[in-house]
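Trying the structure run again after the queue cleared.
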Amino acid sequence: MDYYQAHANSTPAILLWRVYRCLPKTAWCVSWLNPKETSMTRNIPIFRFRYTPGPCESIPSKNLKGEIFAPPPMSATTSRNADGPWATDPKGKRTLTFLSGVLSLVLLAPVSALAYTNAGGVYTSNGTDSDTQAAINAAPAGSTVQIPNGTYNWANGISCSTAIKITGASIGGVTILDNQPNGPLVALTPVIGGTLEFCNLVFQEGPLIGSKNGQHFIVINYAPGSSPILLHDSSFYSKGDILSQILWEQNGGVVWNCTFDSGSTNAAPTNDEQIQFKYPTTDRWQSVDSMGMEGDPNGTLNTYIEDCTFQNEPYEMLDCDDGSRVVVRHCTLYGTCVSHGADSSPFGTRHWEYYDNSFLYPYSFGDSSAPNLQGWLTQRGGTGVITGNSFCPVSSENRGTKSSVNWLSDAVTEYRCYTEYPIPRALGQGWCGCSGSYSYPQAPEMGSGYTSDPVYVWGNTSNNTYQSGSADTYGYVNNDLCNNGLTTQDFITAGRDYFFDSGAKPGWTRYTYPHPLRSGAASAPLAPTSLKGTM
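Done. Tokens:
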């Protein structure tokens, strides 16, 4: 039978049990005593019986009704430990929360190191990463792994490559402290023919987190041909030791109702990217566009970011990089989003779509706390659309006035020192493999099939201007580090590589919003508050 153990770290051969009066006075409690404890006063109640007091008090009979009491959800500041899902009552007693309707008391046996339960296909862990991983390993496709409300320290993390749902018991109720010293805390691999869903969790940077060079809260692994991963109703908070909060290697998936916060201030900048879309091992550039409804009719070829908030990272909140195809819509953003071309990355971004978002700069002109944003979008590669967005002016007395959208090519000014158009995979470039396509004269190793595919910018609201090369995040645009006098403006030009307010991109329409895959994501199961049984 499935049961919660009494104590995860104790393995005595015999557990001593005690039945005694407990609060309220109309109840009896059953607790265990660990013979290894020096104090025999450590009584941890695990089950409480309701009874009607009589002329004498005796141990309840098997005919009395009992209740398994689940305490209210713990606050985000209340820590749980390896003992399991304990809560603290007003009198200071710790009460074990049972989330299964079946109670099995094993009196004369070693206690297992695992504590997860299975009730109707919902595998509920004790919140530790080891027990959550054990639940994931046991859960078949189509089932749910649930983490009880509380705060947990994870040092080893979890991984999953099964089409299951991994969820916190309630939105905002589960906080995971990342104390993984050597890499990502959560590794998720999309599944062919099934959906992996991850939701209702809050991630925070823990005090023992390791090197920034390899740290991510979550990595979505590259898995060609798989179904989109669904990630929603979660929050991510870092403070300077995360390379990117999420590394998204796969094209395909939906992220919604999430908050990303890097904790950056002018006094203490963190520069923690929030989502990086990148897989630098495989070149995925040479395939046709999948933008808009026509390009992605099933909504599975691009990664969709919807109804999320990105804040406290002014320089690189979203980074569209090697081979990525990203759609950002209906989001609220307080910092700069960028893309990489084949100048500063192995392959560069394929394409991106930003539409119907709000870019907010809530600072007055003289506010000294205004961050040093370099505009809202700084794009260095591929193609895309920018429409229907509201861009607040990026202007302050200390920081100056910046353009909302900027174009950049490091291949011209710093890294490759190209001197001939077209620049490989730069802004306004695409691929069709069709008649009339071309190869790059200064990079024949990148193959052929390329074509001009300009960026379209239209229908946005802003008091700012859209200028090529007026500013960029890294300040490379007007630098001549190649010592040949060439700049981005010589290779990325209006009317060829991008169109500003010249109408919509031909043949492009918005993909269905909200994404249809969201409708299949069930809401988080509520943590039980009053499970009743008969003894």
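The radius of gyration is 28 Å. Worth checking whether this holds up in the mutant runs.
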